[in-house]
Design brief:
Layout: E1 45-46, H1 50-76, H2 83-105, E2 108-111, E3 115-120, E4 126-131, E5 135-141, H3 144-149, E6 151-158, E7 165-171, H4 172-191
Antiparallel strand pairs: 1-2, 2-3, 3-4, 5-6, 6-7
């Protein structure tokens, strides 16, 4: 469950649970139900905890704007209707901030012999297996906050729209190494080598 660039090949094993560049979470968060989706074997690689910080900043900033707009409309402009949407948005955003760390611990990916498996979610679990030979585009993106914290997201595009996968919160170096590895494996699978 490392986020280190060395741990991006299917046959490698994790050296430790943290890296010098910020580390990862101690373990992947699983639902407690016996009926949860389980993928046995393999090494789950996790995202950087910096992703939580970036999401807390962006969601918290939006929450502050919602509260400020609600207060201005309701108290200064005497628009009492603003309490309803403002209150609803405030509750939703506060709940999002509370569950964000646990959600981030549930995100992971596994490099297997023939595909990459991506997982996320506690209440609504999602497992997506993307065959290496079907990958058409592997893209790295990052916004201003992501760049400031040294993280990026890796996006895989295949012919089927339903299998588009975005792995958020990867260390920049890990995203670049993983992209290069996946491009190489995808090319060899497509050419039949």
């Amino acid at each position: 469950m490392t986020n280190s660039p060395e741990a991006t090949t299917p046959d490698s094993s994790p050296a430790s649970t943290t890296t010098e560049a910020g580390g990862t979470f101690e373990g992947i968060a699983e639902p407690r139900s016996e009926n949860r989706l389980v993928l046995e074997g393999g090494v789950w690689h996790q995202i950087s905890p910096k992703y939580v910080t970036v999401q807390l900043i962006s969601t918290g900033s939006f929450l502050v704007l919602v509260v400020a707009a609600t207060l201005v409309l309701a108290l200064l402009m005497h628009q009492l209707w603003a309490w309803i949407p403002g209150g609803i948005l405030t509750v939703i955003l506060a709940w999002t901030l509370l569950i964000l760390p646990r959600q981030a611990r549930s995100i992971g990916y596994q490099l297997r012999d023939d595909d990459l498996v991506f997982r996320r979610g506690i209440l609504w679990q999602r497992f997506v297996a993307v065959p290496y030979g079907r990958m058409q585009l592997i893209d790295i993106t990052h916004g201003p906050l992501d760049r400031g914290f040294g993280i990026a997201q890796l996006k895989f595009v295949t012919a089927a729209a339903a299998t588009g996968v975005i792995i958020p919160g990867l260390e920049q170096s890990t995203a670049e190494t993983l992209r290069d590895h996946l491009v190489g494996v995808a090319e060899s699978r497509r050419t039949g080598l």
